[in-house]
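Sample pair:
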Amino acid sequence: MKEKLLHKKVFRYIFYMLPGIVLYYLLPFTITTRFCEVYIIGCILFAINSLILAIFDLYNHKDKRRSRPIKGLVQVFQVLLFFVGGILMVSVLINKSPTALFAGLGASAAVLMLIFKDSIVGFVAGVQLTANDMLRIGDWIQLSDGSANGIVQEITLNTVKIQNWDNTISTVPPSTLVNTTFKNWRGMQESGGRRVDKSIKLDMNTLKLCTPEMIARISLLKDMNFQEMPTNAQLFRFYIERYLRLHPMVNTNLDLIVTQKEPTSYGLPIQVYFFLSDKVWKEYEQIQSDIFDHLLVMVQEFDLKLYQYS
């Protein structure tokens, strides 16, 4: 804590007050003492502000900062601190009571609301995002309009800073995230796997009943007993499911579904739905590509063909 206080110059601003205090008691002139009072108030304001920043830095070194970012709250305290400090300085200079100035400002509350509108709206939206655990630093979020898709770097009073996957930076008002829909991928990152949902479209003209020879040449299905002869599309579905359940990177504790969808003018879709254990983007894309490369090549082993529009 001591290092943080030194780094933020808390003690320096406290020492800066000493000349003002000395001059205040030594100089007999009223005008001079007023300037000394303003100087002392300024030093106190900067000392308190530095103390707030030191506490904020200390908080940032804790793990909970990711789930409870407080930078927006700190900025609110800073605005209030310097607003009140400014009122005190003006009251000293014009020799008026601060309460009288605050009472006068009450009449111009509408103007103040207009001036600080963005800050007030941003603060309220930030409280909603934090209180409802909708957003944390480090979350991967994706806005519905495509304006941002990346990792949350910072949450402040007026902006949420997002580093997109192309390394550009998007800044979004917190109110935008409250009033519009966005996708937060945190649930996927904290779960046991990342979903894969693709379809393999078969040419319906190649569907037929299997032969014993076809079943015998598929080594992965040799131990299966069929009460009646399956179709080659059915056998292919059995193969896909068994292949995925034996794959080391597929999380079989989560849903694994291989099903036939309604035929379309673009062939017969075989939906393949499963979860990969590796959720890192690059590795995830590579593993699922390898899996479907294998499945697409294996189609011909079942005397099937992929549908291709011509």
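The radius of gyration is 33 Å.
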